Amino acid sequence: MKKPKFLSLQVVENIPFVKAGDDLGAVIVDCIKRQNLSVLDGDVFVVAQKIVSRAENMIVPLNSITPTAEANELAEKTSRDPRLCQLILDHSKVLYCNGRAVITEDRLGIVSTSAGIDRSNSGSQEGETAILLPEDPNLSARRIRETVKKLLEVNIAVVISDSLGRPWRKGSVGMTIGLAGISALETGQKIDLSGRKINPEIALVDEIAAAASILMGQADEGYPVIVVRGVGFTPSEEVKIQDLLRPAAEDQVWE
Length: 255
Prior knowledge:
Blueprint: E1 8-11, H1 24-35, E2 44-48, H2 49-55, E3 59-61, H3 69-78, H4 82-91, E4 92-97, E5 102-106, E6 111-113, E7 129-131, H5 137-152, E8 157-166, E9 169-180, E10 190-191, E11 197-198, H6 204-216, E12 225-229
Parallel strand pairs: 2-8
Antiparallel strand pairs: 1-12, 2-12, 3-7, 4-5, 5-6, 8-9, 10-11
Helix pairs in contact: 1-5, 3-4
Keywords: GTP-binding, Ligase, Magnesium, Manganese, Metal-binding, Nucleotide-binding, Potassium
């Protein structure tokens, strides 16, 4: 990986409110052309999970959910809507619940709170719809990447980001849940300033997602796509988010 000397992050402006069935890659390219934004080989597109989920119709009306006894029990324990608790149970395994936080592992192996399900930016001011994670964020990233490559004739990488919490720290930060064209981890032997050989393992895609989230925001900012330039990364055509996930046997948090 070539060490960058500077980075630039550019908002893709005027992204419309994405609806089910929209070709997200084409929507992004159209906005880039209208903005007259240059895109170069090696740029990284960071795309907010919410617009990916909306394009893929991962929106659930809460009035269509009938809570089970288990969901009602979880709702009483956590002061959550029982229907939301049912969605959490349907789409993940609950690892831990302390009466406030519900820590889950979803079908992709991603550990987060409430299976990544929430009601913000779902399209309902009343909060009567919930938005789920994409079925396969890696596939979502690949589709966006292929469309952008075809329409703009540039070789870019794509990161799908979501706001996640972290053990031992307050607050949320942008992290990667799907990716295409960029290695999940940067590894390899290096020499430190003292001349010692070291073997760092760097989650570069999470660093990129975190940087982009500064511009994206998490409320009504309306900037769900950020173009990051200047990152030296290892290209990969076979990458998947699971490459970034620590196996349970190695996870010290759950020991």
